Amino acid sequence: MAFHGSSRPTVCGNIFPGSDATPNPTVPNAPAGTPRHPAEVPSPAEMEPDRPIGYGAFGVVWSVTDPRDGRKVALKKMPNVFQNLVSCKRVFRELRMLCFFKHDNVLSALDILQPPQIDCFEEIYVITELMQSDLHKVIVSPQPLTTDHIKVFLYQILRGLKYLHSAGILHRDIKPGNLLVNSNCLLKICDFGLARVEEPDPSRHMTQEVVTQYYRAPEVLMGCQHYTSSIDVWSVGCIFAELLGRRILFQAQSPIQQLDLITDLLGTPPLSAMASACEGARAHILRGTHKPPSLSVLYMLSDGATHEAVHLLCRMLVFDPAKRISGSDALSHPYLDEGRLRYHTCMCKCCYSVPSGRVYTRDFEPPADRPFSHNYEQSMHSVWQGKELIHRFITEHQQGKRVPLCINPQSAAFKTFIRSTAWHSSKVSRKEER
């Protein structure tokens, strides 16, 4: 993906100390009654931007070095945060999610850079673990992908997805590029710019502008105005097939063509499976020639498309979301037994080795310990109010943390770093995002 356009963000406050355009660094106000002395305020440690490593619709990610321990980490820059209320809510939602996550297969925030004074507060900088690659790059590379690779990757995707869904979170953009991997095959789900809390009320409309088209579930393609976590499971099914065949399963030029490719494989769905579809999409399906299922072609994806693999894949790629397997149930499929064993034998942090053998955790796929709350969004009624809430959240998050961080304005890549932005962030719809 590429970005278009560039805009120099406001350089203000203690994000970039020492810059000619930067006022003196400020620190968050202490709680009332707390004495504050200059000696108690640590000077920010300066980070050196290395290079951009990832681009998304709402941010850019750089590789940087944490000067506090010399560790290479990823720094996600969220520009143009306060353009409108929808943008404020979306960014605050993603920020809170990154701070909420506590799971080995879900990317989480390690730290947040101190915000400047609120009048100069325009961008957010979040530090996460630095991963070496993503699943898209692995799939299109000449590197061999064995059945063991596929099983351990799929196991981790579903393990992370179970955690997200148990917290009530829909990712809404599961695709290979949003699955980060290391050379040891450790995988983490990332990019929660489109994520939201699952809406239990079926009368509440939700946007269809979610999920990269190739991985979009049929109910979304057909204009369903309320969907569930099953849309993420469909996306994982598409990725599973892509891992097996090393090519995109449904590669179409338009949403209509995408729907046609799906029905070519699954057959014409019954009317009951299209109950929530918009009239135009339903008419398009019914106008066409009746198609029988052709699921047997899935065995031709590769030698790894065994009976167990295709059985699980067919449970994920079900047209009717009510009949599609859940992420939690998919983890119980026998195809993933070897992936589970390999992951917990030598990759996970929840199990450990002792001289007498391996000590395994009681729950291999733990759910979230509580639902993710989005009640704060109900109290956000203006951009300025959103700015205050986000500023306060970051400031409170910093309390009791390590030495604060800032960007070194004298670093070689500083100018490139501050100009880097996300092309789509300025085009976010002002319509309330659902």
UniProtKB/TrEMBL annotation:
Activity regulation statement: Activated by threonine and tyrosine phosphorylation.
One of the protein's GO biological processes: Wnt signaling pathway
Gene Ontology molecular function, alphabetical: ATP binding; MAP kinase activity; metal ion binding
Region feature Disordered, mapped onto this chain: 1-48
Main location: cytoplasm
Pfam families assigned to the protein according to its UniProt record, in alphabetical order: Pkinase
Listed EC numbers: 2.7.11.24
Subcellular location: Cytoplasm; Nucleus
Catalytic activity, as annotated: L-seryl-[protein] + ATP = O-phospho-L-seryl-[protein] + ADP + H(+); L-threonyl-[protein] + ATP = O-phospho-L-threonyl-[protein] + ADP + H(+)
InterPro entries: Kinase-like_dom_sf, MAP_kinase_CS, MAPK, Prot_kinase_dom, Protein_kinase_ATP_BS, Ser/Thr_kinase_AS
Record's compositionally biased regions (Low complexity): 21-35
Enzyme superclass (EC): transferase
SUPFAM superfamilies: Protein kinase-like (PK-like)
Binding site for ATP: K76
Keywords: ATP-binding, Cytoplasm, Kinase, Magnesium, Metal-binding, Nucleotide-binding, Nucleus, Phosphoprotein, Serine/threonine-protein kinase, Transcription, Transcription regulation, Transferase, Wnt signaling pathway
Domain Protein kinase: residue ranges: 47-336
Cofactor: Mg(2+)
GO cellular component terms, semicolon-separated: cytoplasm; nucleus
Listed PANTHER family: MITOGEN-ACTIVATED PROTEIN KINASE
Protein family membership: Belongs to the protein kinase superfamily. CMGC Ser/Thr protein kinase family. MAP kinase subfamily.
Protein name: Mitogen-activated protein kinase
